[in-house]
Design a protein that fits this description.
Layout lengths: L1 H25 L6 H9 L2 H21 L4 H4 L1 H18 L5 H18 L8
Helix pairs in contact: 1-3, 1-5, 5-6
């Protein structure tokens, strides 16, 4: 159970990092390339996103020392579900109807790959 919660936490941290990267990108709208680099480097959201990615990388390494990659990696796909859903709420983005079918397939795939897998299998 602890490993599963850690995997979910990892996915959540990565998703928040993606939302912060999107915020940095939105702050660049209409900005010329010459000043865009300076604006990106001055944006605190960039450093927050990079810090989250660094922390998530360390968590991922720790998780892989305890969970088989074949069991851990499907949780990466959960980010494909979380990020667009969060972007709808945070940024008002719209998703196409086919997205909902894709979400269902991803969630079903995660459930199928996790059924019958020993929780702490090396």
């Amino acid at each position: 159970m602890t490993n599963m919660l850690s995997l979910l936490g990892f996915t959540l941290v990565m998703a928040v990092g993606q939302l912060l990267f999107k915020k940095v990108g939105l702050d660049l709208r209409g900005v010329p390339l010459e000043t865009g680099v300076t604006r990106v480097l001055a944006n605190p959201a960039l450093y927050a996103a990079l810090a989250l990615y660094g922390a998530a990388t360390l968590l991922w390494i720790w998780l892989l020392s305890r969970v088989p990659l074949s069991r851990a990696y499907p949780y990466m796909a959960l980010g494909v579900v979380l990020v667009p859903l969060a972007s709808m709420l945070v940024f008002g983005e719209r998703v196409r109807p086919g997205f909902w079918l894709g979400i269902a397939l991803i969630v079903a795939g995660i459930v199928v790959t996790q059924i019958g897998t020993a929780p702490n299998q090396p």
